[in-house]
């Protein structure tokens, strides 16, 4: 299903969730520092770069496109950390790891809306995300969980009202992911 918004087309999955993609953008393969961007609605708050998927767009392609638009970085797209359901906002977000290899001096959102970017140690990123985007803070818990336990199969995280994630490996949710 698709809905048109003023400057974008929103796509939805079979359950009516908005299809989104995002990346945890790391400075290096040690995954010790992550890049966050300023929120477009609240410029003093930090968020994980990501956004809506376009029609017929694969989640990994959408994730790379969104981080280039929002954070002005390019890099090596790595593993899928998980698929996160925000039941309150009816979003389902595919979250990937991206190792940054290039930072653009000027990028789409810096020019158009003055978006900023900043590197954070993981614990600091979690702390600032908990204040404004607590669901995004759970991405890091799944990052730690995904390596040893999922054996390359994406985790599906359902975020409950108390923001405690429940993880499951759900083959039906990962069909079509390459």
Walkthrough of the structure:
The protein has 178 residues and is α+β, with helices and mostly antiparallel strands. Helices cover 26% and strands 39% of the residues. The chain contains 4 helices and 11 strands. It has helices at residues 59-71, 108-113, 122-132, 134-149; strands at residues 2-5, 8-11, 18-26, 33-38, 46-47, 50-52, 73-86, 91-103, 117-121, 155-159, 165-169. Strands 3, 4, 5, 6, 7, 8, 9, 10 and 11 form a 9-stranded mixed sheet that branches. The protein has a two-stranded antiparallel sheet with strand order 1-2. A hairpin with a 5-residue loop joins β10 (155-159) and β11. The relative contact order is 0.19.
Helix content: 25-40%
> How many runs of DSSP E, i.e. beta strands?
11
**Rg over CA atoms:** 15 Å
Q: State the low-pLDDT regions, or none.
A: 2-6, 148-153, 164-178
- Average pLDDT, rounded to a whole number, is 83
C-alpha geometry: globular
Distance between the termini: 22 Å
